[in-house]
Amino acid sequence: MHLDSKAPGGPIETRWDRHRFNLKLVNPANKRKHTIIVVGSGLAGASATATLGELGYNVRCFCFQDSPRRAHSIAAQGGINAAKNYHNDGDSVYRLFYDTVKGGDFRSRESNVYRLAQISVNIIDQCVAQGVPFAREYSGYLDNRSFGGAQVSRTFYARGQTGQQLLLGAYQALERQVGAGQVRVFPRTEMLDLIVVDGKARGIVARDLLTGKTESHVADAVVLGTGGYGNVYYLSTNAKGSNATAIWRAHKRGALFANPCYTQIHPTCIPVSGEYQSKLTLMSESLRNDGRVWVPRKKGDTRPPTQIPEGERDYYLERKYPSFGNLVPRDVASRNAKAVCDEGHGVGESGLAVYLEFRDAIERLGRHVIRERYGNLFDMYERITGEDPYAVPMRIFPAIHYTMGGLWVDYNLMSTIPGLYVIGEANFSDHGANRLGASALMQGLADGYFVLPNTIGDYLASNKFEDIDPGHAEVRGAEAQVASVTRRLLEAKGTRSVDSFHRELGKLMWDYCGMSRTVDGLWHALSRIPALREQFWREVRVLGCGEELNQSLEKAGRVADFFELSELMCTDALERKESCGGHFREEYQTADGEAARDDAHYSYAAAWEFHAGNAPELHKEPLRFEYVHPTQRSYK
Amino acid sequence: MRLALHIWRQRNAHEKGRMVRYEVPNVNQDMSFLEMLDVLNEDLIAKGDEPVAFDHDCREGICGMCGFMINGIAHGPLRGTTICQLHMRHFKDGQELYLEPWRARAFPVVKDLVVNRAAFDRLIAAGGYISVSTGSAPDGNAILVPKENADRAMDAAACIGCGACVAMCPNASASLFMGAKIAHLGLLPQGQPERQERAVAIVAQARQEMFGSCANIGECEAVCPKEIRLEVIARMNRDFLRASWTGRTPWRSDAAEVSGQPRQGSPTRGG
Residues B51, B149: one domain? Predict the structure, then answer.
């Protein structure tokens, strides 16, 4: 299979403009004749739904939550990047492009990233107009901060709730289209299969989670904005319901899955407190601006942190990275935390945590300044742990936070199945092997507001869409497939709960395909996963029936897909014999323990094709860097 | 510690529900309330009983999906906190807790502790937005917003739409939820052109949804996990009254025509 990225050539500054000009347009009177299905209502899905509705298309938006406003984009705290250069500090579209390509460790497509940086400025304008209450200076101008190690102030924010406010903006725009009759929302409805007719995506099979009724929905194009797959690890900062089912089932219908091994770990999360732990809570990494990370020098030191004298503390980030110190990128901070804990310096009951202390900042700036900057985060920490972070250091540990991999898409955001578009975290497109802070919100909204609504018209204008009868063989086939999976899950009548399997799979993935990976570990995981999966299908216990709200059944279907996806993640991690961004192979590191890329052999996006009953097949999209030349990242 | 839970079990929207007593013997004080229910559910599954259904998603207090009554208080005893962020250290060994779903005519029970809050979406669809289509926005700094207004708009915009305000209100009024959106948009210059129409349209929709009226009791403010202030209701009333007085958008029972927005009821949602 030839992977044609359709990325235009020529000067990078004008690629998107030229490309847009060459796209075919749908006559306004014809737009209402097209129905588009959007699955997912996060930043990408909601913004796409709203914009497509405004353009005049008939849109059907599906989400598994009880309202589109609840999608997990809502939990993003930090902010959204835009190359506005409001601070005259040297920022530009080119610099945001450059930072993103470099931050992605040279594993992304230059054309896409440049377009993202260009669009970033329009996103802010759009959101302000919608009434997103971004932070302001006393003058009334928009406020910015520097974020995630960036050397310019380009991050816009709304307190610690930027994701919430951006999502509510998109959700309100979506609801406006509901009121106008352009959009119909299907809440508590989960996509369980993709309908492909004559090689084109023509609809979905979805289950109404309240009635259990499985129904087919036919359309001219399908858009997936269903987020990432971090919940493979069971414990992650994702919402409990976040899942990979939509993209995985599309993958099984022929959409290639790119770079599944690129996962991102966030360094500042609240550590696990016990076996019952159901999820991990992230605290904005802005905390590292004023907090100092340390562990006791002595292994297994159980003294309370306040009684450990200065000389017996190891501020290991400041020691190893004198110029960036506590502000090293996420992957570097995370790996170092794991390393010191593996050596026995970890703190807390589990030994899987490091300290993040604000004592010095409080002495220097005063308690009130720290409260002003981080008050809500400190409150959240105290609420969860019962400890006062003004008095004792926080305990933090890395957790899975974001997945850069996803379904392969071309420059138009179309997957390898014609008519199937993938936007936001669900695709693989813009972040390469590592995403920069405050860039996820930017990408989700760029795809949904500005890219997809333009590119999808070209497909609709250049294809003919025959009516599809509900009795069509492909529709019936997909429905039967869904029904058989549901039946199998309900009829297993085993002894173990879905969660117990999910937890076991998650632990296996965290240990062997998590923050750092080895050839032996990956082979071990690859030998264990199939056995565990078989055991799951044999021994899982799903009570209740399929004809009503059944939360165990919903979970079971998602976990079944995680089993298959986790195998592909390990296969991809094994195949990529280099370290880059979020993918760290212990065998491939520099003398001082940094990720060692192998550009000569691995400068490509790995896109995997599904073959039922056989090993997945690898297709490569070579990556060319005409503007930003690959260098070794260094934060020393 | 050990807890006794009395939980509302209701198979579906049509069948009658009842309280059922469960013992949870091994509660760790660092668990969240929902993790404690996870443990109970694992136990029920092992025994072959159907687990208790409850809504939840982000489990970090922002998605607004979770929420039920604990001993008659929406989201439980801790102020400014959703149930997912409520930890067991706030309870005592041997305590008896009564868990019930939100009770309001506009929020019918779906199963156990799960209710249908689609009425909130319809309130927003009625007018809870600024009408700006993608692409038509001026530069973000073209219209300045005084910091104080931006901050107060953010205070109101923090609403997570969980429905605790409705559940706690003796009248099952949605005024805090509506007021929060009306105040958020009404405090910003971008929200001015539609300000009065917005209030009229949302209030009219609330009547259709069978939410009750506000009697200034203040229970909503007391249980709001985002601590939205009652002041937003005053703002809503002011916008609504001004709209009626100025005659720009005279109040009629058929507000749909008045606000110029096509209004659709429940048929626009669901499978």
Answer: no
pLDDT digits (tens, 9 = 90+) for A96-150: 999 999 999 999 999 999 999 999 999 999 999 999 999 999 999 999 988 766 7
Domain containing B209 — which CATH number?
1.10.1060.10
Domains contained in chain B, number: 2
> Is the Cβ of B134 closer than 8 Å to some Cβ of chain A?
yes
Shared domain check, B184 and B250: yes
Q: Where are the CATH 1.20.58.100 domain residues in chain A?
A: 473-608
pLDDT in tens, A212-248: 999 999 999 999 999 999 999 999 999 999 999 999 9
Measured in angstroms, the CA of B170 and the nearest CA of chain A are apart by 24
At the second CATH level, the architecture of A265-400 is: Alpha-Beta Complex (3.90)
A344 φψ region: left (φ > 0), alpha (ψ -120 to 50), beta (else): left
B14 has a chain A CB within 8 A of its CB: no
Cβ-Cβ contacts under 8 Å, B62 against chain A: 74-75, 161, 164
DSSP string, A298-324: STT--S-GGGS-GGGEE-HHHHH-TTT
Which residues of A belong to the active site?
A: 330
Per-residue confidence (pLDDT) for residue B247, from 0 to 100: 66
Q: Which alpha helices (DSSP H) does A366-472 contain, by range? A: 367-385, 440-445, 452-462
Contacts of A75 in chain B (CB under 8 A): 58, 60, 62-63
What's the confidence (pLDDT) of residue A537?
A: 98
DSSP element (H, E) containing B221: helix B219-223
Decide if pLDDT at A52 tops 80. Answer: yes
Confidence at residue B250, expressed as pLDDT on a 0 to 100 scale = 43
Q: How far apart are CA A156 and CA A150, in angstroms?
A: 13
Q: Averaged over A55-61, what is the pLDDT? A: 98
CATH number, domain of B59, equals 3.10.20.30
Which residues of chain B from 48 to 67 reach within 8 Å of chain A, CB to CB? 48-51, 53, 55-65
Among chain B residues, the shortest Cα distance to A242 is held by B57
Chain A CB within 8 Å of residue B257 CB: no
Which positions in chain B touch A551 (Cβ < 8 Å)? 51, 53
Q: Is A460 exposed, middle or buried (0-12, 13-18, 19+ CB in 10 A)?
A: buried
Banded model confidence at residue A263, pLDDT cuts 50, 70, 90: very high
